[in-house]
């Protein structure tokens, strides 16, 4: 028995010598078996000779002894890196010792330990090391490690393998949990890191430009991540990254992004794509980190947009805005910043939203009295008018411009206002100019795709009408050729039949037409009746155009005039002179219209009539005479265009019409909502109504309130008596 | 014995025209019926005093006469309250049925008793639940045309003064000022009318600190509020 212990001691001593590097032959396999057998024998004695417990204790004792008396002192007498090395060496020795001795004492592991649920031999070895070595040195060790890391951050090399091994010891000392590593090392490491980067950031933010700072930050993050792979435990990575990001990027975000001449604004202005991409990359990692960047982006775009608006305002002369220029610039602005969103900002929704919000702000501003809706409609009008005349604007540019218009319209809140202006102008284009059917249809298709069929139904109807009118005209001419109706002699007559409801409403009058025209009207009416029953034709003379042959003394000239003007002129076919009063009675025009027409014929550019007295204004006592002496170098003259109302009046009418339609829309929406909800408090009703209508326009809250009251007095809704802030649907 | 109301002696005093003779009958039910019918007779006779003989209703002239009998100015709120009690439908006229209803509810059948009953009536009307009903009635009563839904602002001013003037003098004065000055509203609806009363009851005046523009107050009150705020500034 004692012999057994002696043999064991000898084996242990031999082992120690080997581990300490002293010259000693290695263990042969028979020695190995011998040692194992000794233990085996000592354990398999019948009690009370079973020495398992003593062996177990002895095993523990060996380690305790060695740790306390050999390992610890040798570590403690060293400093700095040397201490680390010694610790590392001891740790390695310990590991080997554990391995060998647990092989020797293996039999204990198999039966004694499991039977008594005791810690395994490996565990015992580790625990001893931890208790007697680690616990006494970890504080100093940690200081050394952190000092080394600091050195590395400052650019010096350190022994990664050493650090890795030491930190592994920390981890192992936790015996399954990361507690030791976290409490004895990581905590301090992170604190140190935080203050390190705080200092760095303070000095960099003052000295460096935004791009420079970002590059340094990116570098730092990269290095720290490398550090983790080299020797830190992987669980440290997220915490480390967070600390660094917070110090370098989050706490100084405002200062950084708003840096004069190099911050976000400046980068956007100067097209610094790389820097902006870097900014995105850096802040993307941080939760909510992109918000300040998106905000800076939005503010920048908004101010650019506002700048354009202001430019246009300043350049506007006498209330007329150069909308071609402005709209093109806004389109360009949109393309530019959308490119940023897609490129640098990786199509992130936060930036799409920022762009949208920015555009919504300045796209809804009025410019010199005109709303953006009107300007956009005018832009389209001019685009299509020019396209008819100017071949240099080819189809694909027109198409892409149309696409841009649709995009811009999305930002404008008063879409219904745009629709109304557009419709009015479209009507003029269709009736009075050459229009390109394809272009007209193309934009309507795109608008329909974006905003729904109801938005474009009237406009589409108008374009279709023109097509039908062409067919109709062909049919009419055939009809006449076939001698079906009295052919209007020597008069070429073209009719456009417009569907009421699609087209804007036009004033008309009961003009007394010259006989020739009356015949034309009658013959068309007869033809039309053969084609369709149950339809009433309302003739809008105010929109017609006539070509007359003016037999002037110098030379005959073709006059292109409006129907009203033609009626007046034709009155002179039978007499040389007519007074205002006679004309008034003969023609049956209102005074307002008659004055306007006579003025255009006698006081304006082309004086087809002579006026007595020859003043600049028409009075009811004037008389008129055919101006046989009239001449012009051209063969055709006249103001053929439909005399439009002055633009301001027109605008007022459009706004009024739209307001009226909005009232109906609000009513309908309110009733719809209440019908389905039955009972609803005021605030919710208002917000749902706004929501429903937002596709077309932004309703005025006061107007909604007034409509609610109107619906109450019309018995669609009632106020709840007990709760006057709630409304009930009246079935 | 059926309880006899104290009306008999007073009837004799203040209503010399009426012929009264109480019949003491052996059968109680017959008596009460007779009494009831006698009361009705009294009421009817009183009615006939003021009614227009040809139309069979009390017309505006009759009402004026009634008012002077009651010693009450004919624009006084108590006449309106009486009309309410009667559930009178047409402004300026009382039908026989309405008369009966009103006087029965007040338990009076002579002018003297009616006059005495007026303060009681007023107190009753001013009870919160009744007042709400009365207030709405006041508006309804002034609608003269069939299907009419609105009253012109001038009538409203008078009504406000009459109905709310005694309780909410300050508010009514300002409201009337405003209604006279503003140009947006030419007529007032029932909903707006109700709003005025609610305003006076709920909103502290003249500071109006608890008024909230975001609630469902009728727009006219929002405008009134803003107008007053501006004036106070």
What does this structure look like?
Chain A: Belongs to the cullin family. Chain A: This is Cullin family profile domain-containing protein. Chain A: InterPro entries: Cullin, Cullin-like_AB, Cullin_homology, Cullin_homology_sf, Cullin_N, Cullin_neddylation_domain, Cullin_repeat-like_dom_sf, WH-like_DNA-bd_sf. Chain A: One of its GO terms (molecular function) is ubiquitin protein ligase binding. Chain A: Keywords: Isopeptide bond, Ubl conjugation, Ubl conjugation pathway. The complex is a heterodimer of chains A (about 725) and B (about 230). Chain A has helices spanning about 1-20, 30-45, 50-75, 80-105, 105-115, 120-155, 160-175, 180-205, 210-230, 235-250, 255, 265-270, 275-285, 290-315, 325-340, 350-360, 370-390, 395-410, 415-430, 435-450, 455-480, 515-530, 565-570, 580-585, 590-600, 645-675, 680-695, 700-715; strands at about 545-550, 555-560, 575-580, 610, 625, 635, 680, 715-720, 725-730. By secondary structure, chain A is mainly α. Among the domains of chain A are: about 1-175, Cullin Repeats (5 helical Cullin repeat like, Up-down Bundle); about 180-255, Up-down Bundle (5 helical Cullin repeat like); about 545-640, 2-Layer Sandwich (Ribosomal Protein S5, domain 2), CATH 3.30.230.130; about 650-730, Arc Repressor Mutant, subunit A (Orthogonal Bundle), CATH 1.10.10.10. In chain A, strand 1 (about 545-550) and strand 2 form a beta hairpin. The longest helix of chain A is centred in the first third of the chain and has 33 residues, at about 120-155. By secondary structure, chain B is an all-alpha fold. Chain B folds into 2 domains: about 40-125, Orthogonal Bundle (Recoverin, domain 1), CATH 1.10.238.10; about 135-230, Cullin, PONY binding domain (Recoverin, domain 1). Chain B is built from 11 helices and 2 strands, in the order αααααααβααβαα. Chain B has a two-stranded antiparallel ribbon with strand order 1-2. The longest helix of chain B is centred in the N-terminal third of the chain and has 23 residues, at about 30-50. Chain B is elongated, with a radius of gyration of 22 Å. Chain B starts with 6 loop residues before the first helix and ends with a helix. The model of chain B is unreliable at about 1-25 (pLDDT under 50). The interface of A and B includes residues 682, 706, 708, 709 and 719 of A.
């Amino acid at each position: 028995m004692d012999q057994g212990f002696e043999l064991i001691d000898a084996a242990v001593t031999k082992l120690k010598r080997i581990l300490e590097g002293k010259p000693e032959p290695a263990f042969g396999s028979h020695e190995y078996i011998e040692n194992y057998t000794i233990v085996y024998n000592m354990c398999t004695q019948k009690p009370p000779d079973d020495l398992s417990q003593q062996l177990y204790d002895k095993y523990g004792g060996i380690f305790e002894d060695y740790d306390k008396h050999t390992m610890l002192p040798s570590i403690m007498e060293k400093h700095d890196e040397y201490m680390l090395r010694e610790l590392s060496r001891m740790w390695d020795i310990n590991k080997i010792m554990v391995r060998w001795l647990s092989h020797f004492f293996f039999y204990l592991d198999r039966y004694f330990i499991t039977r008594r649920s005791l810690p395994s031999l490996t565990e015992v070895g580790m625990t001893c090391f931890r208790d007697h070595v680690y616990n006494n040195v970890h504080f100093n060790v940690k200081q050394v490690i952190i000092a080394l890391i600091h050195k590395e951050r400052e650019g010096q090399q350190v022994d990664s393998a050493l650090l890795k091994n030491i930190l592994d010891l920390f981890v192992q000392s936790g015996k399954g949990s990361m507690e030791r590593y976290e409490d004895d090392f990581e905590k301090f490491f992170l604190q140190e890191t935080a203050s390190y980067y705080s200092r760095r950031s303070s000095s960099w933010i003052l000295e460096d430009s935004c791009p420079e700072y970002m590059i340094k930050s990116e570098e730092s993050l990269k290095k720290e991540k490398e550090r983790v792979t080299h020797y830190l435990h992987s669980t440290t990575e997220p915490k480390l990254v967070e600390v660094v990001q917070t110090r370098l990027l989050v706490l100084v975000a405002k200062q950084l992004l708003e840096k004069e001449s190099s911050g976000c604004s400046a980068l956007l202005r100067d097209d610094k794509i790389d820097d902006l991409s870097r900014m995105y990359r850096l802040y993307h990692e941080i939760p909510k980190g992109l918000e300040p960047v998106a905000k800076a982006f939005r503010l920048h775009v908004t101010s650019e947009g506002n700048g354009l608006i202001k430019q246009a305002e300043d350049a506007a002369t006498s209330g007329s805005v150069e909308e071609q220029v402005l709209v093109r610039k806004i389109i360009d602005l949109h393309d530019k910043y959308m490119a940023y969103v897609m490129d640098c900002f990786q199509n992130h929704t936060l930036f799409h939203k920022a762009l949208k919000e920015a555009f919504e702000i300045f796209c809804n501003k009025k410019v010199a009295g005109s709303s953006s809706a009107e300007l956009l409609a005018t832009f389209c009008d001019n685009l299509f008018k020019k396209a008819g005349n100017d071949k240099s604007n080819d189809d694909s540019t027109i198409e892409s411009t149309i696409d841009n218009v649709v995009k811009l319209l999305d930002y404008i809140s008063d879409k219904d206002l745009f629709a109304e202006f557009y419709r009015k102008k479209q009507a003029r284009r269709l009736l009075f100019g050459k229009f390109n059917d394809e272009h007209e249809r193309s934009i309507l298709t795109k608008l329909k795709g974006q905003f729904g069929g109801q938005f474009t139904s009237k406009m589409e109807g108008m374009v279709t009408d023109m097509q039908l009118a062409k067919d109709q005209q062909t049919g009419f001419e055939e009809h006449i050729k076939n001698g079906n109706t009295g052919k209007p002699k020597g008069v070429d007559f073209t009719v456009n039949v417009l569907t009421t409801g699609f087209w804007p409403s036009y004033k008309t009058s009961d003009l007394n037409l010259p006989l020739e025209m009356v015949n034309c009207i009658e013959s068309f009416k007869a033809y039309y009746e053969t084609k369709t029953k149950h339809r009433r034709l309302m003739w809008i003379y105010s929109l017609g155009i006539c070509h007359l042959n003016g037999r002037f003394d110098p030379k005959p000239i073709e006059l292109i005039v409006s129907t009203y003007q033609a009626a007046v002129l034709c009155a002179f076919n039978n007499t040389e002179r007519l007074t205002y009063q006679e004309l008034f009675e003969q023609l049956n025009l209102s005074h307002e219209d008659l004055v306007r027409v006579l003025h255009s014929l006698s006081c304006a550019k082309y004086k087809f009539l002579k006026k007595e007295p020859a003043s600049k204004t028409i009075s009811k006592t004037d008389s008129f005479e055919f101006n046989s002496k009239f001449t012009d170098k051209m063969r055709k003259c006249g103001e053929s265009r439909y005399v439009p109302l002055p633009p301001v009046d027109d605008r007022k009418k459009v706004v009024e019409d739209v307001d009226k339609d909005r009232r109906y829309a609000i009513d309908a929406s309110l009733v719809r909502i209440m019908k389905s909800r039955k009972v609803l408090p005021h605030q919710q009703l208002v917000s749902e109504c706004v929501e429903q209508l937002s596709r077309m326009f932004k309703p005025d809250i006061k107007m909604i309130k007034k409509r609610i009251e109107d619906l109450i007095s019309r018995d669609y809704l009632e106020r709840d008596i007990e709760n006057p802030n709630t409304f009930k649907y009246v079935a | 014995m059926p309880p006899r109301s104290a009306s008999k002696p007073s009837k004799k005093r203040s209503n010399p025209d009426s012929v009264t003779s109480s019949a003491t009958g052996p059968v109680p039910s017959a008596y009460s019926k007779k009494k009831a019918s006698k009361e009705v007779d009294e009421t009817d006779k009183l009615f006939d005093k003021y009614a227009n003989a040809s139309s069979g209703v009390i017309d505006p002239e009759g009402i004026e006469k009634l008012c002077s009998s009651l010693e009450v100015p004919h624009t006084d709120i108590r006449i309106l309250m009486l009309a309410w009690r009667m559930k009178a439908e047409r402004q300026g006229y009382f039908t026989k049925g309405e008369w009966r209803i009103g006087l029965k509810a007040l338990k009076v059948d002579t002018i003297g008793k009616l006059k005495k009953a007026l303060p009681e009536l007023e107190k009753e009307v001013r009870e919160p639940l009744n007042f709400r009903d009365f207030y709405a009635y006041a508006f309804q009563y002034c609608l003269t045309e069939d299907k009419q839904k609105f009253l012109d602002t001038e009538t409203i001013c008078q009504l406000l003064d009459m109905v709310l003037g005694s309780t909410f003098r300050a508010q009514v004065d300002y409201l009337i000022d405003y209604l006279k000055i503003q140009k947006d509203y030419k007529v007032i609806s029932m909903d707006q009318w109700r709003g005025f009363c609610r305003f006076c009851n709920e909103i502290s005046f003249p500071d109006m600190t608890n008024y909230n523009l975001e609630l469902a107050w009728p727009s006219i009150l929002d405008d009134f509020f803003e107008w007053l705020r501006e004036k106070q500034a």
